[in-house]
Amino acid sequence: MAVRIRLAGVGLAKVRFAYSPVFETVMAVDGLRVPGAHAVHLPWVAWARERVASVDDLPVLLDLLAGPAKPAVLMPVPDVRMPDLEAELAGVPARVAAVVRACHEVLVAPHWRRIVAVLEADISARAAVLADRGVEAVFADLHPEVTWAGGELVLYADRRADQPHCVDLAEDGLVLSPSVFCWPRAWAAVDPVGRGVVRYPARGIGTLWEEREAAAPDELAALIGRTRAALLALLVSPMSTTELARRLGVTAGAVSQHIGVLRAARLVTTRRDGRAVLHMRTARADALLA
Hints:
The model has no long low-confidence stretch (mean pLDDT 85). By secondary structure, the chain is of the alpha/beta class. Strand 9 and strand 10 form a beta hairpin. Helix 2 crosses helix 6 and helix 9 crosses helix 10.
């Protein structure tokens, strides 16, 4: 089925980015249910299978996920860039919410920092495209199943279907929501109440489960120092000071000093998102590493 999302005027001006811990958790469980459909996550599946048996009442959630369409209550549209899990579970029936909460704690939370880094990196890259080339360029590069033409965002969930499903978001706006566990498909809310949502696989998912080592070109290390070069190499996705210190084997204070130098050289930017402070390398740093 093709989903045609009409965006114009006010609705187009309200396009924004956000992601959902509840959606990630629900799709992670779905990935365990049908792992062949989510092959990129097989390393995680092997890890999670040993732990999922500890989740009480899991069949309650599995039964809701059995069909191709997922219940809207398990697909909340994020109110803010990264909503709190409990805030998203507020409208979910208590028994189902308890299972989702347990699944998040057991299966997703141990990897949440890494997942957030991938999602944030995707948003940062697309925000740069938005600033440079506008919203049409963002839509054009969102997903192979998504196209933009004539004021409509079209998601081809099934190209064989003749009759499209039309969604009018001319007033309510649209949330573009990168996801890790929705891979490889794009998803759209077909009957939104208020703002709509399109979920798409975030960039960089292929490296999510790799154990990456800090490796920097020798020439760059000679220029700016091995620790700073390794730090830039690690910042292929946003990371916190604590995570960088752990990966580099140095103190958080040392990382802060290096970040300050790199920020002054416009090789790194830093921003706060709630309680988290994330560092990201800039396009200038990308060019330096190339």
